[in-house]
Amino acid sequence: MTNFSTARGNMQDSAERAAHATGDVLRDKAAQASEALREGTERIRAEADTVARKAANRVSERPLMALTATLAIGAIAGYLLGRR
């Protein structure tokens, strides 16, 4: 019986070590994914700010053209949605 008990104890120890190692790997991967997501979010936010600034500058330069384009887009969208 001692061989069985020893083998069982060894298996439990091995399982615990494997579980801890798996937990460590998962924690590392989650941290990497979180960092990648944060960097991606920052990059997208910066690009969106740049696009918004460019759009604001264009509207400031030519407000009547911006108004005309907006009205045209609205009219086309209204026409297409009204056809449903």
Structural class: mainly alpha
Q: Which consecutive residue ranges, at least 5 long each, have pLDDT under 50?
A: none
Order of helices and strands: HH
Specify the biggest β-sheet: none
Give the percentage of residues in beta strands: under 5%
> What fraction, in percent, of the residue positions are helical?
over 70%
The span between the termini is: 79 Å
Strand runs, count: 0
Let me know the average pLDDT.
Answer: 90
Word description of this protein:
There is one protein chain. This protein has one domain (2-82). 95% of the residues lie in helices and 0% in strands. It is built from two helices and no strands. It has helices at 2-61, 63-82. Helix 1 crosses helix 2 (63-82). The longest helix has 60 residues, at 2-61. The protein is elongated and about 90 Å long.
Summarize the structure.
The protein has 84 residues and is mainly α. It has two helices and no strands. It has one domain.
